[in-house]
Amino acid sequence: MIPLTEKEFEDDPLEMIEVIASLQDWTCERSDSEISILANGKHNNYQISVSFQNGYEGLNIVCGFDIRFNDKNKYQILKLVSSINSQIWLGHFDIWDKDGLIIYRNSSVLGKNNITHDFIQQMLLDAINSIDRYFPAFQYILWAGKSSEEALNTVLFETHGEA
User: Fold this and answer.
1) Range of 63's domain?
2) What is the pTM of this model?
3) 109-138 pLDDT per residue, tens
4) 14-34 CB burial, b ≥16 within 10 A, e <16
């Protein structure tokens, strides 16, 4: 018997995403063209929308997390998003200015037959890990009134070695 994670889903990449969500114990709901996932993150639950674009044979991931900004914080949030995006290789944070929302996005054009379970799972986990890593920086600006530089330096601070 072939393990579930190695099963081919060439006809329906969204079915593969449903399996991954199930294996991660995430709640999901499917429509014809996309899957909505509620995933547990380190700081919050994240709402992930995954769609497969047949015309482009690509995967689009949009991940929202429960944090909003207002005009008072807008400039620092924009600076922070720009700084973060210059440091991450895949995906990016985006601003929905009208709604005061920050989201994470990642898209890949692969071809339907080249999408694998491991690749999709890695894209989803990268989204969650990116938000987990930078979520506190957004909070530092919104709740503590820190500058974008202070917020980013705080979340990127890593200790090495033993004391």
Assistant:
1) 4-156
2) 0.84
3) 876 667 788 888 999 999 999 999 999 999
4) bebbbbbbeeeebebeeeeeb
